[in-house]
Design brief:
Structural class: mainly beta
Radius of gyration: 17 Å
CATH topology: Porin
Distance between the termini: 36 Å
Number of strands: 15
CATH superfamily: monomeric porin ompg
Largest sheet: 15 strands, antiparallel
Helix content: under 10%
Number of domains: 1
Number of helices: 0
Length: 242
């Protein structure tokens, strides 16, 4: 799955206060927030990709556990795919795991800041382990949120840099609208950048139920690739714990 794409994600949540997090699903830019001490998040989503050859990605599962109020561990299982026109079934992505550490919390400090190193685990002989390390920032201005993420794939050959910039606005009816620009670039290669312009929303219907969606388009593509045309996700997220 390429990053450059259109994304459509619906997520149902059981969470005490979802809007404490300004980034993350359905956006590509990850926020510095964590679930909270002894809280579990189970995320699952169904993806649809419609470039030249359409295919569906069978639901993936991500499990997140909060340790204290500023740490989390996560694990994501492989993401299979089914090609619609050929009924083809393959494993598209590798499993990954990571640990997030939030150094600064906006409730006590001027800004929220976290680091979230993750490792992608190979499942086939031709694949290699990859490690990426993002730094995540977030600041609230009344109803506005501004988020920033910088990251680097340290085991790729060649290495890759990525950056997400997110702005969100929350209305009184528990509706939050967001927009982001997400850029990735292979270092030491010219015309290798990929960039997405993405918009999304979160709508909280009850304490335990939130609808999330996003849609975007690839506005920058590497010179040897076509721009992505359509990508969508639907999924649920469940949170439980003390």
């Amino acid at each position: 799955m390429k990053i450059g794409a259109i994304i459509l994600l619906f997520v149902l949540l059981t969470v005490e206060n979802l809007f404490s997090q300004g980034g993350g699903p359905p956006m590509l830019t990850t926020d510095p927030g964590t679930p909270g001490n002894n809280h579990w998040e189970i995320n699952t989503s169904l993806g649809c990709h419609f470039p030249t050859h359409a295919y569906i990605q069978v639901p993936t599962i991500e499990i997140v556990y909060g340790i204290g109020n500023h740490y989390q561990v996560s694990a994501q299982l492989p993401l299979p795919s089914v090609e619609l026109n050929k009924s083809h079934f393959t494993v598209l992505t590798q499993p990954q795991t990571g640990v997030k550490c939030q150094f600064l919390d906006e409730e006590k400090n001027f800004i929220s800041l976290a680091v979230y190193p993750q490792i992608i685990i190979p499942i086939h002989k031709e694949e290699k382990s990859q490690i990426f390390i993002p730094l995540e920032f977030e600041k609230t201005f009344n109803n506005f949120r501004v988020g920033e993420e910088f990251g680097y794939f340290v085991l790729n050959n060649p290495n890759t840099f990525f950056n997400g910039t997110l702005i969100g606005f929350r209305f009184k009816n528990e509706l939050e609208l967001m927009g982001e620009f997400y850029l990735s670039k292979t270092l030491n290669e010219t015309q290798s950048a990929s960039g997405i312009l993405n918009i999304g929303l979160r709508k909280q219907f009850s304490k335990n139920l939130v609808l999330m969606s996003s849609i975007g388009t690839e506005v920058i593509a590497p010179f040897d690739e076509d721009k992505e045309s359509l990508f969508g996700l639907v999924g649920v997220q469940i949170l439980f714990g003390n």
